[in-house]
Amino acid sequence: MSANKKTVYVNAKIFTSDDHNLYADAMAVENGIITWVGKETEMPADYSEKIDLEGKRVLPGFVDAHMHPIMLADYSKKISALPPNVNSLADLAARIREVREQQAADQWIEGWGYDEGKLAEKRSPNRYDLDEGCSDAPVSIIRTCGHIRCVNSKALELAGITKDTPDPQGGKIDRDENGEPTGVLRENARNLVTPYMPDLTFDQTIDQLLDLGNLLSSQGVTSISDMGLLDSNDPYVYYTKAVEKGFKQKVSIYYMWDNFMGDDSFKITKEQFNKDQQIHSAGLKIIGDGSVSGRTAWMNEPYLGTTDDYGISVCSDEVMETAIAFCKENRCQLSMHAMGGQTIDRIVDRAYIEEKWTDDDTPYLRLEHVTEPSDQAIAKTVEKGFGFATQPIFLYCEIESYLTNLGPERTKTTYPVKKMLDAGVLLCFSTDAPATSWAVPSDPFPCIKAAVTRKAYDGTDCGQDQKVDIETAIKLYTKSGAKVSGLQGVGELKPGYHADFIVLSDDILAVSPEEIDKVNVEKTYISGEMIYERN
């Protein structure tokens, strides 16, 4: 179907995410832009095509405001250490062995997604566990959070990591009682092996992005934020080439400042900052701490079972100050990964003394994850208009680690969505895929279910006072995601906005909250073009 004719969509249950016109049953689209939304009895008469949506629920396309698409696309081709593929360390070793049998000894074996809480042994793998799978080729398995890497003995040897190797700034090498590395590399220590690991070719990356775009379309995700790569490649180049080959999603890109600080040649051009195009550069990303599930987030109180383990502060003053200076000079956003309360307070207090440096209504600071914000941080955030991007899916799928590291009562106070919304915080939902230990990490529906039920996948209560209703959850996954990310003309179905919308198999506003993750996307439209239709 051409997106250029004037088309009306009728017989629909439209939820617009537009507070001034929240529900409708018809919509008009011309040249990919919505021109009218309202009651079918009042729709314009001058149309060239009418499409009956058969009484189905229609939503704005989902906006995933925090994910790592290029990493997700790459990980999808590697060993998945998630259930049901891997339920124990023996399973993991077996999967590694299978891969080794298919390739040469000088090739790396890579995987992702393990969560010790879901392994039968209830512990992280170490070098010796991975050696059971393969000892003559290097092996690297990334933890689900993305902040911890486990490698085998061969990989440690290649990278020259020994008992004499010091911990890098903002990182930790786990060691046994004799001081020998166990193979577990936390935060910045995980980067000690990356120079020895293979890079994909440019064309391979583009092909993987195209495959991912198709997956996102099937999940109803029409706009995304790429929150940074672990290397110094330019994601803008990848995405613009992928668009030439048919990639459809709108993307805002953030550059991981650790990869570019001190490089005088690094710049983001005026053209890249143009938000009117499908792909635009939004700003910089810095890493403030780690993950709660990996016990590396820099928390207000010690982790359960300790008196002095508060996690790790990853970001140096130099990284933070130079990032702020770049963003002020270029009038672009600064994003900071901030899970623990000490990290949240640190960046909020620092940014609070600045005047807003972005030109439009995009927040000049956005915080990622925001596990335990203090009342003071929330108040300052509201006053300054900072944005928060959080992930209800973390509690839903990583509950074992949270209970182990924080205990049940403290876990219930994390990610206080209702509290933040009631205070007036600009808050959105996202998946952080692939840093999500779920079968299909980019799927929005388990995330929405988690927010509405405030329960984990196994039924564990995660704090009922912080759940939200389904309408609010949808807004946080559409309109609010666009606002936090500075994505223009998306996230709502209203005149002047892109006709990015999805048609669902079931009415997500009417199904039981426990059934939300069973809803499927029937059709996905981007700028009026149907880009996905379910079989």
How would you portray this structure in words?
The protein is of the alpha/beta class and 535 residues long. Among the domains are: 7-60 and 497-533, Roll (Urease, subunit C, domain 1); 77-196, Diaminopimelate Epimerase, Chain A, domain 1 (Roll). 28% of the residues lie in helices and 22% in strands. The chain has 17 helices and 24 strands. Strands 8-15-16-17-18-19-20-21 form an eight-stranded parallel β-sheet, with helices on both faces. Strands 3-2-7-22-23-24 form a six-stranded mixed β-sheet, with helices on one face. The protein has a six-stranded mixed β-sheet with strand order 9-10-11-12-14-13. Strand 16 (250-256), helix 7 (270-273) and strand 17 form a beta-alpha-beta unit. Helix 2 packs across helix 3 (127-133). The two termini are 17 Å apart. Residues 51-532 form the Amidohydrolase domain. Keywords: Hydrolase.
What key attributes describe this structure?
single chain; 535 residues; alpha/beta; Urease, subunit C, domain 1; Diaminopimelate Epimerase, Chain A, domain 1; 17 helices
